[in-house]
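Note to self: user wants both folds in one dump. Writing first protein now.
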Amino acid sequence: MDKVQQDQPFEFNSCTTVFENLLKKEKGPETTMMFEYKKKHPCLVDNDQLPLIDLSSFTGVGSSTILEKERCKRQIIEASKGWGFFQVVNHGISNELLKKLNAEQMKLFRQPYDKKSSSNSFLSNTYRSGTPTPRNQFSWSEAFHIPLSDIRSGNPQNPNNNNNTLRSTIDEFAGTLSELALKIAQVLAENVGSDSKGLAGYFAENCSEETCYLRLNRYPPCPISSGQVFGLMPHTDSDFLTILYQDQVGGLQLLKDGRWVTVKPNPQYLIINIGDLFQAWSNDLYKSVEHRVMTNNKFERFSAAYFLCPSHDTVIRSKGGPPLYKRFSFGEFREQVQEDVRKLGRKVGLSRFLL
């Protein structure tokens, strides 16, 4: 594959610019970002086993007893409280669909840069490379951010358009993840506060095809040594929860007890993590955990993430005790995050909304 043609944002000149910044060969606050980050977060990496939960009793894969269903729910709750991350198996998505999704992603991202960045199909205006934020937030990746409503409704396509297969594949994938996300959210909601049964419908009411989205990711091989630049900058997710499918290459790490934990990849598993909104909504019962993606100098990595998000006017109120956070809408939260990134070069997040 001709990487200069295919990966314009990551061609050699771009690599050199980023590398020079990291080595402080240019002046300015953005050049010290990585070094300041390493001072605050020592690069200590563990390989602790991320909780693995069998969802067969939860998704209807096989027969199960009431006791098994309750045990599954308890595992989801405990993992969300203790880790903020967990893996699931028997999640209801076939291996055939996951393999098909991976193959479709490869075809999509390996198109010439000018073609994939200016698509006139349902992917129109969804392509991103690096990051739209300041250079001190540069991530060695490219992605398509696709609202579910665009996948399912968009304009009729030419039957000879190769994107038809991609569209049907991600429609099936995203549809299953949407159902799974709402089921997980309901389990977590039922554990919060005395009015939990009524709260469980909150997510189905406020999170729709217009507000949730799928992100298809590609992390190209990076000639800069791992640790000098990230595939995805350390961050927390600004949603209720995220469901991730990743290939076998690996690179995902999460921060637990001051140490980075490497998530060993398994293409048959899905990874679920709590977002900022669920942490605030649950009054810190569940944890939105910082995570990152490391680069690889030999192999490209593909992943697909589903984000459970509410409408912009949805108000987040802390449940289950004296509130730790003031009320805020999802729109207000996003605006604050964007303002902080623009002014400070980084996301501040939930601490802005503490009482």
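First done. Writing the second protein, which came from a different request thread.
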Amino acid sequence: MIRQCNKHGKAFTCNNYLHRNNKINNEEESSQYTQCDKAFEHQSYLQIQDRINTGEKTFEYIQCGKVFANQSCLQLHERTYTGVKPYKCNQCDKGFGHHSSLQQHKRSHTGEKPYKCNQCDKAFTQQSKLRVHEKLHTGEKPFKCNQCDKAFARHDNLQYHKRTHTGEKPYKCNQCDKAFSQKSNLRVHERTHSAEKPYKCTQCGKGFAIYNYLKLHKRTHTGEKPYKCNQCDKAFTQQSNLRVHERTHTGEKPYECNQCGKTFAYYHNLQTHERRHTGEKPYKCNQCDKAFTQQGNLRMHERIHTGEKPYKCNHCEKAFAYHSNLQYHERRHSGEKPYECNQCGKTFTQQSGLRIHERIHTGEKPYKCNQCDKAFARKSPMAICSTLFVPVLSAQRFDKQAVGCSCVPHFMCQQLPLHMGRDESVSC
């Protein structure tokens, strides 16, 4: 016999399912208790308040202080602490504490999304997620923070937000000392210990610890860039990347160094900058004794040892270890000189070339010889000047008569022509 819901017109083959549906309908409406002025989002919360007011027995879990209207709900809650997962998926090895959670999980295998939004084309595996989604259309945010003016569409989001005020991080990793404000963040973190990557890309087989990372990765195959800048034509695969990009238009630099006051648009740039103050170089080459402030610089350095040149010119057969070097090289083919001097109009293929050139106009000579009082606009002439004054290790290696200069002990023999102003070579 088919039974029908009076409110939504849904049909059910089992009377129990109809009762459950009616209960959900009742919970949709905020419940007001008649003996006091408290209001509740769910009927179950009203039942607990009813028991408290009448003195009827409630069931409290001593580890967290939560109260339940009946013992079966208490037992279900206990599983979040004991880790008991009696309900197993027959398609994968996952287990669940609640039968309803198993039912929801099975939809990840079947792709079933029975709960459809009647205002857009989105569908959901759970009715609760549909309800939350519907608030996007209505703009409803019934859960308000009593410490600031923020409001939320979901009660659990309010709970997470409150922890930003209290600093509470109740979910602790049992393998390290990290703690989290949300259980989902703890689960994701635990995969760094287990190396578990349950979310696989169907196109290339790459695995991910976090489902959102898989979604982002899929866009590398589809080329989808849904987040568009409204000030230029750039688009991004991630909303966070769009936010960071928008700072190029606004000039916002929210990250400030507390040692020198310099500000940065990106947090990782601040971290790199702070290492200049501390001298920290955490990225060490395992083939030589060099160390770097950035992991990217270490990777580029390692190509010196491996000889890897992944960046190939499509105009000739040359290849380069660094992408920037390929870009500079390609300008030789194209003749492009994008860096222009604003005082004389001279153009350059590299920004560094423009900076050196600008010193002609400013007279700046930042490179000073530590052996004499000369200063230079470029580093290489300064280096040559400094080497002219390098003391020899043994004056016996030189013959003053042969080279014909009374001050020869102060010069390496191959540098003597530079000192003497001659081009001919000198034999020691």
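Dump finished. Worth passing along: The longest strand covers residues 3-4.
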